[in-house]
Amino acid sequence: MRGLRKGLLGVVLAAVVVTGAGAGAVARGPVAGPEADLSHHGHVSLWDGRVGVWLVSENLGPSDLAQATVRLAFSEPMSGGQELPPACLWSSDRVVSCRTGGLSAVRGVGELALDLRTTGLPDELTVDVSTAWRDGVADRNPGNDRHHVLVLATGDPYVF
């Protein structure tokens, strides 16, 4: 958790390396059923084979979201036997899936912090953040819940 605290202090000074669809990707056309705009943002740090992730999932509305699942896929394998928060589970040695909990319409927020270890000491890794499931609710702006982040082993927070 030391790295997560360090990361919070350096967020403003951090280098940002993010690729992907971006927030400007908006789907057009009619949507049947409830609709919510789920977004994920936060930062990832890598130092001495440790990975710190701080993630905020947010519902920008217009409908409440009873539950969603965010998927974090790492390019490097993580060490086995690591405990995760109760809302998370290992999908593989490179993928963690976590429930967001209920997110009310317009600014319903869920937070998640992970402190993980890689199997080796990589100089860098990538993390793909995406929504794996959103309880049948449509999202006409999926670009803000998908991120591809390059993280160098500097201990700096890479913001997405």
Report on the structure:
With 160 residues, the protein is mostly beta strands. The protein has a single domain, classed as Immunoglobulins (Immunoglobulin-like), CATH 2.60.40.10. The chain has one helix and ten strands; from the N terminus they run αββββββββββ. The chain has one helix spanning 2-9, and strands at 18-19, 36-47, 50-62, 69-74, 88-92, 95-99, 108-117, 124-133, 146-152, 158-159. The strands form two sheets. A six-stranded antiparallel sheet has the order 1-9-8-4-6-5, with no helix packed on it. A four-stranded antiparallel sheet has the order 7-3-2-10, with helices on one face. The protein is elongated, with a radius of gyration of 16 Å.
N to C succession of SSEs? HEEEEEEEEEE
Radius of gyration: 16 Å
CATH first level: which class?
A: Mainly Beta
How many domains? 1
Task: Tell how many strands the DSSP assignment holds.
Answer: 10
The count of helical stretches stands at: 1
For this structure, what is the CATH homologous superfamily?
Immunoglobulins
Please mark out the parts with pLDDT under 50 across 5 or more consecutive residues, or reply none.
1-28
How would the global form be characterised? elongated
